[in-house]
Write a structure and sequence with these properties.
Blueprint: H1 14-27, E1 36-37, H2 40-47, H3 51-63, E2 67-70, E3 74-77, E4 89-94, H4 100-105, H5 109-122, E5 126-131, H6 138-142, E6 148-152, H7 159-167, E7 172-175, E8 186-189, H8 191-204, E9 210-215, H9 220-235, E10 245-248, H10 253-264, E11 272-275, H11 278-290, E12 300-304, H12 311-314, E13 318-321, H13 324-338, E14 349-352, E15 355-357
Parallel strand pairs: 4-5, 4-6, 6-7, 7-8, 8-14, 9-10, 9-11, 11-12, 12-13
Antiparallel strand pairs: 1-3, 2-3, 13-15
Helix pairs in contact: 1-3, 2-3, 5-13, 8-9, 10-11
């Protein structure tokens, strides 16, 4: 029996990957009825997992009637199709273009992934992972054999694909994004309300010159945070200054430094900055300090997202934290609820509230410090 080794970079429970690999080979006739499956230890060595993982996978295949486990003799294929309902198969497609091993450790995608994996395992759901390619057509996605799709952090460039799948009644859920003109099931954080809350919070600290720094104009989350920020300024009676509103094409150190330096040199610079992304927050923090200014005495700074094991430990920045783990859980639940009847009746966008976490990078603007930069 020739088998491929499992790719350790692919996220998800290993035993479910073994189940899917063997199920496909049995269903296609590559392992016909009567075939003896290698021993747990032998198969484990071939595919690069532990014997316990193989045993768990074969036990599941036995439960659904595709193999028979005989004490002292081994495991045998008995049917090419499940005699009981196989686990629901969810296909998770990442729009970020990151490699699987990078997804695991990413400050944003990692918690989403853990929520997806934990809830899928709890529900007995089989799932696999892939990536979205730029310009990918709906026909290639429709050929994927699964019960439902979960698109993770798609961007504007993927909207036409999503719209085509929606019109074709192909069950899917969007995770980490949503569009008002696309009524597809979506799970996202309430980025609009988060941006609104940051603006109003800084206004209550008597800041009147408040800057917004975002990245990637084609990202719906950036757009929502900016819209919420503008709404919060308006509600606080403050104008939106285009000179203090920047959405840059990337979140690199050089790009952020250029924006901060330009603000510093302005005639009427900001006394507070909302950096609406984790990397933006880090580079803005360093750029402000490098300019000889103090945080929060000279400039208040609010970031977005969190990475407790990294920069935030030494540099406590007031930030907005998204409920990423719960978002992953809710996406699996929504996918299971909608997979038989799609599209669902009515709009089904679930926006989960963010937390505003006060730390040491924001302070009340005082009369003795009328201008910071």
């Amino acid at each position: 029996m020739v088998v491929d080794r499992l790719d350790p970079r692919v996220p998800g429970p290993r035993y479910l990957q073994v189940v899917e690999m063997l199920r496909r080979r049995i269903a296609t006739g590559e392992l016909p009825a009567g075939t003896r499956i290698p021993s747990d230890r032998e198969l484990a060595a071939k595919i690069g997992v532990s014997p316990v993982t193989v045993s768990r996978a074969l036990q599941r295949l036995s439960e659904i009637g595709m193999v028979r486990r005989e004490v002292g003799r081994g495991t045998f294929v008995i049917a090419s199709t499940p005699q009981q309902q196989l686990e629901v198969h969810l296909r998770v497609l990442f729009g970020s273009g990151l490699a699987p091993e990078t997804v695991r450790t990413d400050y944003y995608l990692g918690p989403l992934l853990r929520g997806l994996i934990d809830e899928a395992s709890k529900q007995g759901v089989l799932f696999s992972f892939g990536g979205l390619r730029t310009g990918q057509g709906s026909s290639s996605v429709e050929r994927i054999n699964n019960d439902a799709l979960i698109f993770v952090t798609p961007a504007d460039e993927h909207v036409e694909l999503l719209r085509s799948l929606y019109q074709a009644k192909r069950p899917f859920v969007i995770l980490g994004a949503h569009w008002d003109d696309l009524p597809a099931p979506s799970v996202d954080s309430d980025n609009f309300e988060a941006g609104r809350r940051v603006a109003k919070r800084l206004a209550r600290l008597h800041h009147q010159r408040i800057a917004f720094l975002g990245a990637f104009a084609n990202a719906p989350n950036t757009r929502d945070r900016l819209l919420g920020f503008k709404a919060g300024l308006s509600e606080a009676g403050l104008p939106v200054d285009p000179e203090l509103t920047d959405v840059v094409p990337d979140n690199t150190k050089d790009t952020v430094e250029e924006v901060i330096q330009r603000w510093i040199g302005a005639h009427d610079p900001p006394t507070a900055v909302f950096a609406a992304g984790y990397d933006l927050s880090v580079w803005a923090y360093k750029a402000i300090l490098s300019a000889g200014l103090r945080i929060p005495e000279d400039v208040s700074l609010v970031g977005f997202d969190d990475n407790p094991a990294d920069f935030w430990d030494q540099n406590p920045i007031t930030t907005v934290i998204q409920p990423l783990y719960r978002m992953g859980i809710e996406a699996v639940r929504m996918a299971l609820a909608n997979r038989r009847v799609f599209p669902p009746s009515g709009r089904s966008t679930l926006l989960l509230p963010c937390r505003y976490v006060e730390r040491g990078s924001t302070a009340k603007r005082t009369v003795s410090n009328p201008r910071a930069m």
